[in-house]
């Protein structure tokens, strides 16, 4: 596995990370044993960046990861943890809490569930509109000084918020959606991150399976986020799958899968961009890791651009209510 560094101040890490949300939440039922086997396979392949959130399955995901990591030397992996999303017992979303006292409380519970004495990168999952980012980052910085956190990260914030955060404490990376059909960060966010020495950990690199090459219309069911995602609805879905068909021709010519080309494209955007793949099964993980062996030259990149031009996706990446809460999407 190739390695990189998360920004100017962050840790060394594998060039691909494993996102574990789907093992507990948002995409319907998952198999616990297969999830643990997938985490083991990732670690054995050299993937040492494990990403989670304390609200994934209301703590289930952290407990699952703790089980998978049991007996592994702590230096073998980096834990990236998001916090702050508030949820009810019916799995509903109730808002976000970025207050300093909440930051420290969330952290205490995550350390306990994960069974570790520190978290490598700790980040608010969203910007709390009622709490200045300086206060939230300042609280994490206190936990860095206390030894409970190694590095500060952010998620889904815009360029202005990123600048304000960096003024308080160095930021290792910004976790944000970035893929062939979600390229909004290229306008302001990515240039600001590079100016400030902040890496990008890109989630949604396969747009929740839409551009994986494996999607079929019958997949989204009850309890699956994609059942209400704009890009998976009606004419939007048909238009987006036409983009996938065009990308498949490029992949076939390269002797690769659609998913591998999509992930390789993200990796080709720079060593400061680390794709976090949400594989829930070992076969999907193996396919994703194959992207690291694909070298895309200028001709390949031009062919991909023709197949999936910037801005070609039909539908927003989240429903309107969720988009309104994304600091990264504000002008």
Describe the SSE topology.
Elements: E1 3-5, E2 12-14, E3 17-19, H1 32-44, E4 49-53, H2 60-69, E5 78-83, E6 85-87, E7 93-96, H3 100-114, E8 119-124, H4 133-146, E9 149-155, H5 159-166, E10 171-177, H6 189-196, E11 199-203, H7 234-254, H8 258-267, E12 273-277, H9 282-289, H10 298-307, H11 320-323
Parallel strand pairs: 3-4, 3-12, 4-5, 5-8, 8-9, 9-10, 10-11, 11-12
Antiparallel strand pairs: 1-2, 6-7
**Number of helices, counting only DSSP H or I runs of 4 residues or more:** 11
Q: Which CATH C-level class is it?
A: Alpha Beta
CATH topology: TIM Barrel
CATH homologous superfamily designation = NADP-dependent oxidoreductase domain
Number of strands: 12
Q: What string gives the helices and strands in order? A: EEEHEHEEEHEHEHEHEHHEHHH
Average predicted confidence as pLDDT? 93
Largest sheet: 8 strands, parallel, barrel
What would you report as the Rg, rounded to the nearest angstrom? 19 Å
Helicity range of the residues? 25-40%
For the record, the count of structural domains works out to: 1
What is the CATH architecture assignment? Alpha-Beta Barrel
Query: Approximately what portion of the residues adopt beta-strand conformation?
Result: 15-25%
The gross shape turns out to be globular
- The assigned structural class equals alpha/beta
Span from first to last CA?
A: 37 Å
Describe what this molecule looks like in 3D.
The chain is α/β, with parallel strands linked by helices and 331 residues long. It contains eleven helices and twelve strands. The chain has helices at 32-44, 60-69, 100-114, 133-146, 159-166, 189-196, 234-254, 258-267, 282-289, 298-307, 320-323; strands at residues 3-5, 12-14, 17-19, 49-53, 78-83, 85-87, 93-96, 119-124, 149-155, 171-177, 199-203, 273-277. An eight-stranded parallel barrel has the order 3-4-5-8-9-10-11-12, surrounded by five helices. It starts with a strand and ends in an 8-residue tail after the last helix. The model has no long low-confidence stretch (mean pLDDT 93). Residues 15-307 form the NADP-dependent oxidoreductase domain.
